[in-house]
Amino acid sequence: MSAEKKSDDKLITLKNITKHYPISSGSFGTRKGIVRAVDGVTLAINRGETLGLVGESGCGKSTLGRVMIRLEKPTEGEVRFNGKDLISLSRKEMSPLRNKIQIIFQDPYSSLNPRHTVGRIIGEGLQIHNKGSRAEQAQEVKRLMGLVGLRLDSVTSYPHEFSGGQRQRIGIARALALQPELIVCDEPVSALDVSIQAQVINLLLDLQKEFNLTYLFISHDLSVVRYISDRVAVMYLGRLVELASKDELYENPLHPYTTALLGAVPTADTKTRKKRTELSGDVPSPIAPPRGCHFHPRCSKAMPVCSDKTPEFKEHTKNHWIRCFLYDKKAKAA
Ligand code: SF4
Which atom of ligand 1 is nearest to 305's Cα? Predict the structure, then answer.
């Protein structure tokens, strides 16, 4: 871990973020319910670090990432980037900050315009924000292509002429064009072969070192997250349930959901294997999440209090946060 990554200089902070989507039906738009995609997340990412965000599909990871970069407005809560409250900014005020916050998507193909050349895709941000003359922009596009390992003579090629890994490199070059500080990487390697995944992850790590980038790395793959992250947050049905440094989380997981997720990752270490539990059933619907601890219907350690009250997210030991009554003496005794 670099010195910058150990710093406590918060680049982005989320306070009590909630994102609910109303479900309406009929011609009068009668409200039928609410999808509680994100439910009260408080979190900070330090400058230069990678925060891994893990959890099963449908647990709200991508929604949280989109709210973080203001692609979506939260229902409630506060997002501060470099101390500035992003939610209260107008479109115009938000525009210069857009450069600083970028996103890389899971499916590089659908996020690239098939009718545009690679040069145009990578240089689009430079054009929109009037960064330099046409010649300078063309030069910058070539520099970015070299940086991410794309052949310079492919500048006039179209996305369909590239492999999946190369398309993700195009997505990364596009994200880098405006010299961002924060990049939300939303399952950026899930659609790639394992050998290509490693290349893209190593590229992200190299670029981070070179430009002191900060990443939110969203993934359901715990092995990939372990490789790239400094700290890891675990999310379940819209809430954070555990947050710790990578080493602490993988060597000393506490929340039953985390141990169950890790149970699905192959390991040769028998001590680690013994600690693990199995994860059964599916994630319940975020339209009607279970009362109390959302995880209680699937938890092998559930107690009567778990279906009645919601555990708080508390710091159990230094920098190791957990939401579980097993680590709350008062609740356990009640
Ligand atoms: Fe399991 Fe209860 Fe902890 Fe929830 S609060 S994870 S149900 S033990």
Answer: 2
